[in-house]
C-alpha cells in the first residue's frame, strides 16, 4: 500500500463518525490527491486560490474543496462557483464579499468564522466580540449567500499541550454558548497533524490534517 493510502486509512479508521477529515493537500501534486481520492477521501483542503484553480478542474467532480487559509477579498469570485466550505472568514469585509459573490451567481457559500484563539499576534481571526456581533447583534440572515455553519480556530504553535487545550476549550465554549443562544451551528473546525488528538478531546467536529497524511511539505 502507498504510504499516503496507509496514513489516510489510519485516520479514516481513527476518526470514523467522530469528526470529518479534511485532507490538507496544499503544495502536493495531483498524483498524491488521486491516491487519497482512490482511498475514498473526498474532502480536500487548500490554502491558495491559484492552487485550487489548478487542481479543481482536474480532480473528479465529486471532490469537495475547502479553503482553509487566509482568503483575500478580491479572490473570492474565483472560488465562489465550487468551494464547499471557506474555513477562514476572518473579517466582516470578507464575509460581505462572500455574500456578494454568492448572490451574483445565486449560490449559497458555506462558511466558518475563524476565531482568534492563539496567543500569537500573527494568526488571523475574529475576536469573540466580533463573532457575537456578527451572529447575535446582526444575525446570520444579514448574509443569506454566505451561510455560517460554524467556527474554526488554530491553537498556538507551542509544545505546551495545556495551553493548546485551553485554547481549543475556549473555542468550544463559545461554540456551545452561541448554540445555546439559538444559533444553528454544526461545525467546529479545530485540530491539525500536531494537535488533533487534543482538539478531538475538546469537541472538534472537523480536523484538518496535512503532513501526517501526505508527508512534510517542501516550500522551496
Ligand atoms: C496547512 C494547514 C493545516 C494542516 O497542517 P498539518 O500540520 O500539515 O496537518 C491545517 N490548517 C490550516 C489552516 C493550514 O494552513
Automatic annotation (TrEMBL):
Domain of life of the source: Bacteria
Alanine racemase N-terminal domain sequence ranges: 8-217
Ranges in a coiled coil: 154-181
Entries under Pfam families matching the protein: Ala_racemase_N
N6-(pyridoxal phosphate)lysine: residues bearing it: 26
Essential cofactor(s): pyridoxal 5'-phosphate
GO molecular function, one term: pyridoxal phosphate binding
Keyword list, A-Z: Coiled coil, Pyridoxal phosphate
Assigned protein family: Belongs to the pyridoxal phosphate-binding protein YggS/PROSC family.
HAMAP family reported for this sequence: PLP_homeostasis (MF_02087)
UniProt function note: Pyridoxal 5'-phosphate (PLP)-binding protein, which is involved in PLP homeostasis.
Stored NCBIfam families: YggS family pyridoxal phosphate-dependent enzyme
The protein's name in its UniProt record: Pyridoxal phosphate homeostasis protein
Taxonomic lineage from the root: Bacteria, Pseudomonadati, Bacteroidota, Flavobacteriia, Flavobacteriales
Amino acid at each position: 500500500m502507498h504510504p499516503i493510502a496507509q496514513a489516510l486509512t489510519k485516520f479514516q479508521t481513527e476518526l470514523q463518525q467522530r469528526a470529518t477529515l479534511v485532507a490538507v493537500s496544499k503544495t502536493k501534486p495531483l498524483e498524491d490527491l488521486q491516491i487519497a481520492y482512490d482511498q475514498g477521501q473526498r474532502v480536500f483542503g487548500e490554502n491558495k486560490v491559484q492552487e485550487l484553480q489548478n487542481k479543481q478542474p482536474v480532480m473528479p467532480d465529486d471532490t469537495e474543496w475547502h479553503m482553509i487559509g487566509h482568503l483575500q477579498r478580491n479572490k473570492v469570485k474565483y472560488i465562489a462557483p465550487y468551494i464547499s466550505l471557506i474555513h477562514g472568514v476572518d473579517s466582516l469585509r470578507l464575509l460581505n464579499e462572500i455574500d456578494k459573490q454568492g448572490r451574483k451567481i445565486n449560490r449559497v457559500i458555506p462558511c466558518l468564522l475563524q476565531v482568534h484563539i492563539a496567543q500569537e499576534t500573527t494568526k488571523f481571526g475574529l475576536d469573540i466580540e466580533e463573532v457575537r456581533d456578527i451572529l447575535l447583534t446582526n444575525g446570520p440572515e444579514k448574509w443569506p449567500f454566505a451561510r455560517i455553519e460554524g467556527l474554526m480556530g488554530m491553537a498556538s504553535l507551542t509544545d505546551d499541550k495545556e495551553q493548546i487545550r485551553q485554547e481549543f476549550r475556549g473555542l468550544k465554549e463559545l461554540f456551545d454558548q452561541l448554540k445555546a443562544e439559538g444559533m444553528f451551528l454544526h461545525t467546529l473546525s479545530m485540530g491539525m497533524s500536531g494537535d488533533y488528538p487534543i482538539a478531538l478531546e475538546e469537541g472538534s467536529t472537523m480536523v484538518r490534517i496535512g503532513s501526517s497524511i501526505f508527508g512534510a511539505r517542501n516550500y522551496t
